[in-house]
Amino acid sequence: MRGSSRASRGGAWVAVGLILLNLIPIVSGSLRLTQLGGGPELLPEAARFTSFPLPVVTHIVAATLFSVLGAFQFLPGLRRGRRSWHKLVGRVLIPAGFLVALSGMWMGALSDLPAGDGPALLVLRLGFGGYMLASLALGIRAIVRRRFAVHGAWMTRAYAIGVAAGTQAIFLIPVSMLLEPSHQAGRAIAMGLAWVANLAVAEVAIRRRGVAASAPRPVADGV
Hints:
Pfam families: DUF2306 (PF10067)
Order of helices and strands: HHHHHHHHH
Mean pLDDT: 84
Protein name: Membrane protein
Strand content: under 5%
Radius of gyration: 19 Å
Organism: Homoserinibacter gongjuensis
Low-confidence stretches: 218-223
Keywords: Membrane, Transmembrane, Transmembrane helix
Shape: globular
InterPro entries: DUF2306_membrane (IPR018750)
């Protein structure tokens, strides 16, 4: 019971931390939606968003659902039962994840690039977006085959990529302080490192779950 309680507290702190990490993209996305809906211009005008807003709106809404609801998937207590929160929300998260990846790749490849973007960042966006799509597909295949640990591992990787915007905002702070906002190499390196950092944390979490699952459980006295 102590181990279960400790795991629940740990999962709660993980969920809180993930939501806090995603506050920056959630707030900026909300401001962008307000602006696209005819509200005040709270963010700098961007022609690539206003000329064809559908992928922008899709990306913001899907990413918000994916990041917030996905954070609660790390709570062990919500996974119990045949109709648990984990299973019900998973039916929303997987389509949202596909929309996040596809809309992000669409905007990167077909929208006019801002001054700070360049070919290197486009390659990174398409590469990590493709890896997210592959992770989601492999997660679906694993759950169909009832390989729950494999499903959790691939979904964790997909989540790590899908919520990298918060990490990128942090990584871009020193770049904006040291370099011009339009410095393409600096932006590409910072954003690429943010994706890599998220995936590294995901792999550590996956490994720890595997070790915990394989560890022998304590036997109660008298049993």
